[in-house]
Amino acid sequence: MLGLLIKDFYNVRKQAAWYALMLVLFCITAALLQNIAFAATMGILITISVPITAIAYEEKDGWQKFVIASGLSTKIIVGEKYFLGILCALVCSTGYSVTYAAAGIDWDIVEFILPLCMQFWALSVVLPIVFAFGVEKGRTYMIAIIVVLIAAFIGCMPLLGNILEGNRLILSLCSTAATIIVLALSIFISIKIYNKKEF
Amino acid sequence: MLSVKGLCKHYTNFEIDGASFDIPDGCVVGLIGENGAGKSTIIKCILGAAKPDRGEILLDGKNVSESTRDEKQKISFVLDDTGLPAELNLNTLDKVLSDIYKKWDPAKFKALTQKLELPQKKALKEFSKGMKMKAAIAVALSHDSHLLILDEPTSGLDPVVRDEILEMLYDYNRSDNRAVLISSHITADLEKICDYIVYLHRGKVLFNEEKDTLLNRYGVYGVDEGQLGELDKDAVVKVMRRDYGVDVLALKERMPGDFDYRPANLDDIMLFFSKGE
Description:
The structure holds two protein chains of two kinds.
Chain A: H1 2-33, H2 37-61, H3 63-69, H4 74-103, H5 109-163, H6 168-196
Helix pairs in contact in A: 1-2, 1-4, 2-4, 2-5, 4-5, 4-6, 5-6
Chain B: E1 2-11, E2 14-23, E3 28-32, H1 39-47, E4 54-59, E5 62-63, H2 69-72, E6 75-78, H3 90-100, H4 106-115, H5 129-141, E7 147-151, H6 159-174, E8 179-183, H7 187-193, E9 196-201, E10 204-210, H8 211-217, E11 218-223, H9 225-230, E12 236-242, E13 245-251, E14 261-263, H10 266-275
Parallel strand pairs in B: 3-8, 3-9, 6-7, 7-8
Antiparallel strand pairs in B: 1-2, 1-4, 4-5, 9-10, 11-13, 11-14, 12-13
Helix pairs in contact in B: 3-4, 4-5, 5-6
């Protein structure tokens, strides 16, 4: 998997630099407005965009045929893209957590965990679509899903906040458990899709 | 080494219909056929990039679809589009592939790319077509494979590069009884290095024979309609009517000795079988 990661880092390095700059700007904005949704939105975008960009390069280069022919298992090929997305999600979440801490803003763990879960949900929904339809066709579905997820995120935050006022630990645990299940299911579906794919 | 048995693959406007042939140890097998005949589809099926509807592909007696990573890596390959990441240079590619191939040999890769005068630090996207193909061949030769499969490796390349590539294939084939399957419609290249020829026409294997036997069997005869009528029908394989007369692909040993002919090359055989009556 390390080889695949090295390849993807090289392929996406220019875009990654832009995303890093955008993340910094959104983190500063989120800290100034004391609204983590700004940074979290950027986090979702980066989490799904980096693996998708990596897949787009693979499609352009014909790498998918190469790597299948080289005997690498679909579990590794698919798993690496999830790993890349998870890595991006963690970097983004760490980014805005550090920004909040540096700005001296009072925040709790739920504000960190929920956006992180949203990033994993986005990744879980988008990657099977991209594996099934390819980057070009998958992009249309992806945009629709991002809009729905962001709307749901922004809309549900106050509602959940009211319902679970005082139960923030339960909210965090439930979100984490649901995210793990969705992520595992998504990886399973993606492997099934990839196994049936022809290049 | 590798056996393709009754391979069928159906697409909307095209199908491979029961293709069967063998690639024996130590042999070079040429897969010829016009564009769209199904050469690349068969290669994709062998490499696992496409799934056959029926039939089986056996590598050392075991179905390739059930092969382990180690077993699959006994096959090295050169794809028509190379499949290599264009953003990477050869040094980075070396790092990537050393993680993918269990028997990757970095020293051999370095030596091959230096021998082929490929720049180490230039991104592959800046390589010419010939350089990309050389890089793909260097990759294919840098892990311990027993069978090398090439899909149109010399297409669009100048004669000098083509000759270099054929020389490398020849060296690979001579060492350790290794086999090669090469698809091409540049039949002159195949005549130089192949032991067997598999001719694919509209998804069907029309013949699968030893190259020398094939080339010795046929002759091309220029006759007129009157002479054509007098010929032994069993000797005449295919006929192509031209403005100036009739060209006949015929079995030399069955033809009268006093007829002038020229030896048929693979291009002739392909042309007669695809367009002849």
